[in-house]
Amino acid sequence: MNDLLKASYGKVKGKKYDLAILPWGATEPHNYHLPYLTDSIISYHLSVDALTRAMQNSEIQGMVLPAVTLGSQNQGQRELPFCIHARYETQKAILTDIVASLHCQGISKLVIVNGHGGNSFKNMIRDLSADYPDFLITLVDWFLIIPQAHFFEEKDDHAGEMESSLMMYYHPELVDLSKAGDGASKPFAISSLNDKTAWTPRHWGKISTDTGVGNPKKASAEKGERYANVIIEKLVILFVELGTKEIY
Questions:
Q1: Cβ atoms within 10 A of the Cβ of 238, count?
Q2: Could you tell me which of 178, 176, 184 has the C-alpha nearest to residue 160?
Q3: Residue 85, φ and ψ in degrees, nearest 5
């Protein structure tokens, strides 16, 4: 049993765990056809599938924690119904409490599997590494592991072909592609922001009409399965290495 949504104390009592996996997403609109918790759902399923394979292929013991659904939101998105914006301080407090709990239980390795591009954990991890020098936190932005180009026809930034395909693979009953907008988006008027010379948050209400950035119309469960499998393969290697080796 490697998933706290299904585990009970009777099944974990007396076991030694090498690492914990923390899926992290957001609560936000995803065009008209995907659920608000898309980022959390995908991160959770990728984590469970990868840890299951890692435990089948090695002697490591791990546990996937329930997904955190509080993400950082941009202006223009956070004003929409039921979009929840979590401040940096809120996210750090949640992560700190999770680390403190695991640390006192003798678990010393945590992998954050992040599915929301607006989340930023690096400074939190640096702070917590100073507070808990014997506790290792690693961060995975799963959507950056493998380039989209060889798997999808349209680049997905938010609620496009990639996320729609993954959701169609994992939860087809939650996807209604017939209701999807085309995910058309508007770039900045300043070229230096478009070419990444500088950065500022995008105002979602000014760049997208359906909250999507990327066309989901060509999404399919088959594309989602192929993409999920290559990401899972990478995560399996990471989980096994973290569970069996020191990093230095």
A1: 18
A2: 184
A3: -95, 125
CA distance 28 to 37: 7
Q: Taking the CB of residue 87, how many other CB atoms lie within 10 A of it?
A: 11
Contacts of 237 (CB under 8 A, 6+ apart): none
Q: Does residue 71 sit in helix, strand or coil?
A: strand
Residue 20: CB partners within 8 Å, gap ≥ 6? 62, 63, 64, 65, 102, 107, 109, 110, 111
Q: Where are the domains of the chain?
A: 9-240
Q: What angle do CA 116, 170, 77 make, to 5 degrees?
A: 30
- If DSSP codes are grouped into helix, strand and coil, which group holds residue 230? helix
Helices then strands, each counted (H, E), the chain: 8, 4
Residues 223, 165, 205, 75, CA torsion sign: negative
Side-chain-side CA neighbours of residue 192 (13 Å) = 4
Report the Cα 25 to chain-centroid distance in Å: 5
Looking at domain 9-240, its CATH superfamily turns out to be Creatininase (3.40.50.10310)
Question: Could you tell me the pTM of the whole model?
Answer: 0.97
Per-residue pLDDT of the chain (248 residues; tens, 9 = 90+): 799 999 999 999 999 999 999 999 999 999 999 999 999 999 999 999 999 999 999 999 999 999 999 999 999 999 999 999 999 999 999 999 999 999 999 999 999 999 999 999 999 999 999 999 999 999 999 999 999 999 999 999 999 999 999 999 999 999 999 999 999 999 999 999 999 999 999 999 999 999 999 999 999 999 999 999 999 999 999 999 999 999 99
